[in-house]
Amino acid sequence: MTDISTPEPAYGRPARWQPATITGITRLTPRVMSFRFLPSQPFAYRAGQHVDVRLTAPDGYTAQRSYSIASAPEAGEEIELTIEKLENGEVSPFFHDVAAIGDEIEIKGPLGGHFVWSVDQSGPLVLIGGGSGVVPLMSMVRHRHASGSQVRLALLYSSREWNEVIFREELLALDDLRDGFDLILTLTREAPKRRKDFGRRIDPAMIERTLSTLPRRPALAYVCGANAFVSAASDALIAAGVAAERIRTERYGV
């Protein structure tokens, strides 16, 4: 989930509110579910973009949130939104507790033009995500795989526990391909499960280790997560020699 809303998209026709039908629901972790939507007017999008979602109550009250698109641009007419349940939220509890396949939800998108990546851009690439901040990064990972790109890509992903690693099995399977994609996980409340992973919060040494998997310093770096996480990771990237103008960030929460 992001807290960024853009009035006009950077790709395709101007975004307008439209109904989208829920076509699939998958639980990924105890607190995260993925929802597949078929928009009434399907649209093209770029990896890293997001959509706005609007719920309207019978009394006319509306609640609106922005959610990153998790699916790759090659996925077809459907889009995937991956939603973490926030106990005090207005929108996420509806999706987790009420929404069902066949429901129509209002969406607007695609939105956002800064935090995007296409395989025709130069590499290598480093992605750093914390918690649900991995969602737009997953769209980039899937885009690389679906297009058959050989761009070198390293993903450093921080989660509290092993069972809270979103897209865990898919990411592990992609890592096992050994095709230029390298996954490094760090768990902040558990010991690591794999030899190459970590069991602490992201720090400069971990960033340097991630960068060492690439043939050279990245052409672009994408960082997504909570404010403090993004600041710490960005500072560590700069300290490791990544130019600030090559770092793109997206933040959520406080």
- Poorly predicted segments: 1-11
Beta content? 25-35%
CATH architecture of the largest domain: 3-Layer(aba) Sandwich
> How many strand segments?
11
What is the H/E order? EEEEEHEEHEHEHEHE
pLDDT averaged over residues: 93
Number of structural units classed as domains: 2
CATH homologous superfamily classification of the largest domain? Nucleotide-binding domain of ferredoxin-NADP reductase (FNR) module
CATH names the topology of the largest domain as: Rossmann fold
Cα-to-Cα separation, first versus last residue: 13 Å
The total count of helices amounts to: 5
Level-1 CATH class name of the largest domain: Alpha Beta
Explain what you see:
- The protein folds into 2 domains: 18-111, Elongation Factor Tu (Ef-tu), domain 3 (Beta Barrel), CATH 2.40.30; 125-252, Rossmann fold (3-Layer(aba) Sandwich).
- 20% of the residues lie in helices and 32% in strands.
- The protein has helices at 92-97, 134-147, 168-176, 204-211, 227-239, and strands at residues 18-29, 32-39, 50-56, 62-68, 79-84, 104-111, 125-130, 153-159, 181-187, 220-226, 247-252.
- The strands form 2 sheets. Strands 4-3-6-1-2-5 form a 6-stranded antiparallel beta sheet.
- Strand 10, helix 5 and strand 11 form a beta-alpha-beta unit.
- Helix 4 packs across helix 5 (227-239).
- Mean pLDDT is 93; it is low at 1-11.
